[in-house]
Batch of 4 targets.
Target 1
Amino acid sequence: MSETKPKKTTGRVNSFKIIQAIISVLFLAFLSWRLYNVISSGVYGPDTWVRFAISGLIIGSVYAVIAIGYTLVYGILFMINFAHGELMMIGAFSGYFVFEALKSIPVAATGMSFLDSYQIISVVLAFIVGMFMAALSGYFLEKIAYRPLRGAPRLIPLISAIGASIFLQNAAQVTFGPQRRTYTNPDALLRSQGWRIPIGGEEVILTYTGVLTFVLSILLLIGLYTLVMRTRYGRSMRAVAENKQTAALMGINVDRIISNTFIISGALGGAAGVMWGIHNGIIYHFVGFIPGIKAFTAAVLGGIGNIPGAMVGGLLLGIVESLGPAALGIDFQLKDVIAFSILVLILIFRPSGIVGEVLTEEKV
C-alpha cells in the first residue's frame, strides 16, 4: 500500500503539468491570433505602439518601486502589507502640500515663486518630505498594527493589514477631503513638455516627468539592492529573514531590523507617491489602493521576496497593461482586468514567479 501512493501522486502531478501545458499553448495561440488581427488591421500606427510602450515603462517603474516594499516586508515577516498602497498615498499628499507651500513663497529677486525659482530644490524637497512622512507612517504602522500580532497565526496580521488600509484611506478622506487635487509642477517639469521623437511620420513626446520617474525608479532599486546585498546592515536583514531566533542569538536586534524594514519600505512607497503625482497629476485619498494591488501583482509576477524579481515584474506588468488592450483589440478601460488576470494566472501556473521566489528554511 505504501508503495502505490507515491505513484498515484506522481501521476496526478504529471497530469496537472500536461493540462497546464495544453492551456498555456491554447492561451498563447489565442493571444497571437488577436495580436495578428490588430496589427494587420492597421488601427494603430508605429508611433502609437511606441507611446504605449513608453507609458508602460513609466507606470511599470512606479509599480516596481511599490512592489519592492511588499518584497521587503514579505522577506522579513512572510506577510503581505496590504496597507503599503496607502503609504504611497501619504507620500503623494506630502509632496503635493510641499509644492503648494513653495508656490506661495515669493522670491523678491526674481518676482517668481520659490517653486519656479529653485525648481531642482523644490523637487528634492518634495521627495524628501514625501519619503519621510511615508517612512514615519510605516514605522508607526508596524508598531501599532503588526508588532503586537507577531506571534499570531499568519492570517491575523493579514486581516490587520487590510483594516489598516481601510483606516488610512478614511483618515485621508477626512483630513484632506474627498476631492481630487492636481499637482502643480515646476515649469521645468510640466507634463506636456518633453523631447519630441519622430516615428513613422509622427512625433512621440518623451515627457520630462516620465524620464524623471523612470530614472529615479531605477536608481532607487539599484540603491536598495546594493544596501541589502552589499552592506553589513543588509546581511543583518537577510539573517533576520532566514531565522529570527538565530539572528537574535548572534546579537542582531530583530525588532530594530523589522522597524527599519518598514521605514525603508515606507520611504520607497512615499517616493512612488511623489513620482505618481508629478507624472500623472491627480491624487486623492484612494489613489494608492489600485496601484498598491497592482504592485502586489508585480511582486508575485517577478517572484515575491526577490528584489530583482519585483523590478522585472513591475516593468513587465506596466508594459502588458499598456499594450494589452490595444494588442487584444479591447476597451482600454479593461486594463485592470488584464492586470488582475495575470495575478490569477501566475498564482495558478507559476506561483514562484518569473525570476523565482526567495525561500528560507523558516518558510519551508
Target 2
Amino acid sequence: MNDTKHIHIQAYNYPLPDERIAKYPLAQRDQSKLLIYRNGEVVEDTFTALPTFLPKGSLMVFNNTKVIQARMHFRKETGALIEIFCLEPAHPSDYAQNFQQTEGCSWLCLVGNLKKWKEGTLTRQVEVKGSALTLSATRKENRETSHLIEFKWDNQGITFADILEAVGELPIPPYLNRATEEKDKETYQTVYSKIKGSVAAPTAGLHFTPQVLQALDAQGVEREELTLHVGAGTFKPVKSESIGGHEMHTEYISVRKQTIQRLMAHQGEATAVGTTSVRTLESLYYMGVTLSNNPEATEKELHVHQWQPYEYAESVKRGETTALTTMQALEHILNYMERNRLEVLHSSTQIIIAPGYNYHIVRRLVTNFHQPQSTLLLLVSAFVNGDWRRIYDYALSHDFRFLSYGDSSLLIRE
C-alpha cells in the first residue's frame, strides 16, 4: 500500500494543449474516433466499430445515471448574483425521495460569490409548469468545502425535480471554459440515462447511439446497467505531491440483484463503460469482502473506504486472511440481498484505483481521454499496467479529441 500512497502525481502529467480539448461534441456521437489498446499494441477505428472488438457472449455494464440541472442562481437585493450548485441531497438523503418533495428539502451545495451572502434567505420568483411560485434558499451550517442549503417553495403541486428542470442549469465541466448552451441538455446526457442524481455525465457513454446498442445486441454482447451518481469531486484536482495526501470523494451507488446474478453468470467478468462503472464494479468485490467478515453489515457499513483494497491486499500478503475469489465475493452479496429481501443494493464508495491495484471484475474498459494528473488517469494506468503513456502519446499524435466531449478508447486486459 505504501508504494501506491507514495506515487507522485507529477509522474502522471502530460502536455494537453487547449485546442485538443473538445469544447463541443461531434454532430453524430458515434462517429468519434476509437483507440483500441491490447497487449501493448494500439490501433484506431471509429466508435461504430466497437461491437466488433468485443467477445460474443460477453457482458457490458453501463452507468444509467442522469445529469441533473444542478446549478441555480439567486440575486440579492443589492444586485449580487449568488450561484448555488446542488451536490448531494441532505434531507431527505435519498435522491428519489428528495426529488419528490413538494414543500422543501435540503442539499449540500457549493456556493458561488459566497462572500456576498453572509446571512439571510435568498428568494426568487419562478414559473414552473405554468404556475408561479416563490423559491427560497437559506444557508445553514458549513460542511467542509460545501454548505447545507435549505430550499422551500409555496406550491405543493410542484416537486423539487420540477423546480430543477425549470430553473436549474446543466453543470458542464469547468475545463470546457464556456457557458452551458441549450443543446448541452441533450448532448451531455447518455442516450440510456434514467436515474437522476449526477452533477457530471459518465462521459464514456456519450458515444453510444441506439444504432451502436443494437449492433452490440446483434454481436451477442449482453448489456446490464447500474447506477453511480457522479459528484463534483470527479473534477477535484490532486493537489498533494503524492496521492497518499489526496482524499477521494464519496459517490453513491445502486446495483440490482439481477446485475449480481448476471455478473456471476459471466464468471465475474465484464466490460465497463466508463470509470464510474469501473469504480462501482470493483467496489462490489470489497463489499463482498466486508460481508465475508460481517454478514450482518448494514448497507451503509458496506461503504468502500479509499484505501480498503490496498489494506486488504497487505493483509492477504501477510497471511492474516485468505483472498476471496471474485465469485465468492459476489456470492456473499447475492446471499446478503436474498436474506434481506433486497432487489437493489444501495451503498457508497470512496475507492481510489491507482497503480498497485489488482482488478477483480473489469476485463475491458471503454473510456475517454482524461486530464493530466487526475485520479482517472491513475485508474487507467493501473488498468494497462503502467502503459498509459503509449496510449496518450498515440492519441496526441493522431489528432484524437480529449476530455468529456472528446474521442474514446477501448482498453483490453488479456
Target 3
Amino acid sequence: MSLLDDVAERDNWRCWVCDEPVDPDMSVNDSRGPSVDSRTADRKAKVPERLAHRGCNTRKGAVKVVIPWAAHLHVVDPAPLMTVATRLDRKGGRETVARCPTRHDADEAAAWLADRFSRLTPDLPVTTKVEPGGGQFLVILATSRR
C-alpha cells in the first residue's frame, strides 16, 4: 500500500482542509484528486501527513491553513479553528469560539464543531457547550487534555 493509500484510509478519504470526501478513483493530477499534505507550518504537528484534495493542498501552500466555518451557520466573531485546536492541544481548558444570536443557532454551531473537530483533530477529545451571555449565546469548546 502506498503512503497516499495509508493516509487516505486513516483519514477516511476526507480532505482535512475542506472536510469534503476525496474520490480515490480521481487522478492525483486533478484539483479534486487525492494528495498527501506533508508540509505543515507547525513543525510540532503530531500528524505529519494529512489527506487533502490536490487543489486544497496547492491553495494552502506552506502556510497555516484556514479551516472555514460552515457557511450555513449563523455565528458572530468565529475563532480561527486551527489556532483554537493548537491552543487546546497545548494547554487544555476551554475557549469561547463564537457568539450566536439564538439558542438554536448556537446549538447548531456546537454540533457542527464537535463533528468537525472529531476529524480535524482526532486525537484531541473535545466537548461543546452553549451558554447565554449578554443577550447572545456563547459557543464554547473544551478539552480535558493538559
Target 4
Amino acid sequence: MTSTHRLKRHAALVDDMAEARGIDLQDASLRAGLTPDDLADMVHRCAGCTQPDSCESWLASQVGAVSETPEFCRNAKVFDTLARLGSG
C-alpha cells in the first residue's frame, strides 16, 4: 500500500470515527479549537494503528451516533474530549 493511499485510508477512518461519535470535525474546528495540525496528528496516530481492519469492521457495525470509541482507537481520548465539548 502506498504512503498516500495509506494516509487517505486513515483520514477516512478518522472522519468515519468522528461521524460515528456524532462529531462534526468542521464544527469542532470552529467551536472546540481543533486545528488543521490537530487533525493531521489524528490521521498520523491512526496511520500507526495495527488494527485498521478491526476499525473498519467496528464502524460498519454501528448504527447512529455512539457514546464511546473502541478502546483500540489511538484517538479515543481526542474523540472523547471533542464529544464532551459538544462539537457534534
